[in-house]
Amino acid sequence: MELSSQEHFSKAALIESVLSQGSGIMGEILLNNDFSLRHQADRIVMENALEHYYSPEAARKIARYDAQGLFRPLKTAPTLQRGWLLQLESMEQVILALDFFYPAALDLYGSFLQHKITITPLRETLDRQTGMYRITQLLKEEQAQELIAKTCSSNNGCLRKVLWSISQVQEISTLPEEKKRVSMQIDEIPLLCREACNLLVAAARPLAKKNLPVTNGPSA
Ligand code: SF4
Predict the structure, then answer these.
(1) Mean pLDDT of 112-130
(2) In the CATH scheme, what architecture does the domain 11-113 have?
(3) Strand 161-162 and strand 192-193: pairing?
(4) Fewer CB in 10 Å around end: N or C, the chain?
(5) Do 11-113 and 122-209 come out as alike in CATH topology?
(6) How crowded is residue 2: how many other Cβ atoms within 10 Å of its Cβ?
(7) Whose CA is closest to atom 4 on ligand 1?
């Protein structure tokens, strides 16, 4: 699906196009054209074995904790709990539920399709930091590469595609190519990352602190 910058982006049209084959994927969620959503790992689980919900707001509750009951600070972490079926009544409700599961992700993909997305390299994000996070500007490239590999990995970090680089001249070398490329599958709404999030910036702080020059105390 490609939208020109003149076309009005509609979340409903985007979802309808993804559902043209009957079902589609967004992150860990399987969408069906009967306005139902479930974890895609529950695709073949009998519906009567799933806990049923009927309001878009239930998505907020489902997304809040993982299967171990731990809070999910990053909604795009691959830790969405299984075992639920959200049966909604309209496209408007589906949009609302998806915005609870993955805040702003539909808009971001719409901006991407219209070539309106703004992508910010990590160095620019860190250069903007003030207060206690200003120190992250000291982060070295090898530290950044390691941190990104750990924090953004799709296996245990985050499902978003990383569109930014470290700087205008430094690419990310520690993530696989498919993690940095949007593959435009007809039945998928990809989750995109246009700049380093607060979690990554916070995790950069202790690493950058190690780069402070060592000051010698007064000699005895
Ligand atoms: S920086 Fe982007 S890809 Fe990495 S963890 Fe944060 S949101 Fe996910």
Answers:
(1) 97
(2) 2-Layer Sandwich (3.30)
(3) parallel
(4) C
(5) no
(6) 8
(7) 152
For 8-37, write each residue's pLDDT tens digit. 579 999 999 999 989 999 999 999 999 999
Order across the sheet with 84-87: list the strands.
51-53, 84-87, 36-39, 29-32, 23-26, 188-189
The model's pTM = 0.92
The domains of the chain are located at: 11-113, 122-209
Phi, psi (deg, nearest 5) at residue 65: -125, 155
CA of 107 to the centre of ligand 1 (A): 17
Please compute the mean of the pLDDT values over residues 126-140 and round it to a whole number. 97
Tokens 């039945």 found at: 187
Q: CATH assignment of 122-209?
A: 3.30.70
Is the pLDDT reported for residue 6 higher than 70? no
Count of CB atoms situated within 10 Å of the CB of 121: 19
157 CB within 6 A, ligand 1? yes
